[in-house]
Amino acid sequence: MDDERGDPTVGELSEGRILRRILERLGESNALVGPGDDAAVIAAADGRVVATVDTLVHGPDFRLAWSSAYDLGYKAAAVNLADIAAMGATPTALLVALAMPDETRLSFVTGIADGLRAACRDLAPGCRVEGGDLTVSDTLTIAVTALGALAGRAPVLRSGAQVGDVVAVAGELGRAARGLRTLFTRFTDAAGAPIAVDERVLESTELTDLAAQLRPSPPVWLGPDAADAGATAMMDVSDGLVLDATRLASASGVTLSLESALLGADPASALSGGEDHALLATFPARRPLPHGFVRVGVVQPRGADAVMVDGRPYEGRGGWDPYLDWDARTG
Ligand SMILES: Nc1ncnc2c1ncn2[C@@H]1O[C@H](COP(=O)(O)OP(=O)(O)OP(=O)(O)O)[C@@H](O)[C@H]1O
Ligand SMILES: Cc1ncc(C[n+]2csc(CCOP(=O)(O)O)c2C)c(N)n1
Ligand SMILES: [Mg+2]
What we know:
The protein has helices at about 15-25, 70-85, 105-125, 175-185, 205-215, 220-230, 240-250, 265-270, 320-325, and strands at about 50-55, 90-100, 130-135, 140-150, 165-170, 235, 255-260, 280-285, 295-300, 305-310, 310-315.
């Protein structure tokens, strides 16, 4: 048994032992029935549950050479918490399905649990991992389901933007995309395979970009604030600002007109980058924007294009599509 360092592989352990080691990292449950029974029981105080799921798969979504176990847990939680926030809701619980190769170390599994817990602590303090599933697979996969509560609010949909509304964003735009570019350009070998990150060779802004890619920090708490401030439509920017704005514009039957001068120092990355999970929302123009949101454009009547940038259609893809952009042979 390859267990000399007290760190066995999951293939050397039983499901029950792995589970116990995960549960002892997660802290107190917040649920009516937490982990340990056939299912969790979560309170739905106002009678409605907001629910979403997002899966991270080794290959298209992350590389073990670049992400630590903690990073993966953190990101798997954060991307789901952002989707709950984007409805105007507060996250209440996560359910985590882990499919792991036999040779995965127990310390890796507990690292994922630590990352999940830390993301909840940092981004959605009332939320806990309340259940999940373990199975074995050649491809490391983390599927997180997040639940949320609206506390009496109407959900903020993608479809409510009104002509004349202000388009606004809360959170980073473009950092995570720059971080990914750094990984692919600086930390791959001659054949294009990912190699370990050497943080000593990076400038401080590059380190910040890398952290944004590996451990995104979306402003989850601003989702309910946006709803309370009268947001007419909202979504998180997961795939790219232009691509996601196109989805919101199409759902609402309007055109979103963005101004690149309002998108910070690197508008090109802001326009096509997505994984910061910023909140993109529209608000009635007559009211002040809620704290944390900045204006990036205006809602116009639907024209030939769903999104305009500086008065022109955007040239290029405008974001990530897993089917178009991922190729198993090239990564
Ligand atoms: N396999 C599926 N079955 C049913 N509905 C799905 C399925 N996949 C996606 N959807 C639904 O389609 C909508 C858009 O999904 P999508 O995954 O693009 O949104 P998202 O979660 O905001 O984005 P991202 O995955 O980039 O974070 C969501 O309402 C989602 O629930
Ligand atoms: C190793 C590696 N390769 C590629 C990417 C790029 N990428 C993966 S998922 C995604 C957006 C959201 O995806 P989804 O819509 O599937 O939730 C993006 C931009 C990455 N982050 N890591
Ligand atoms: Mg989303």
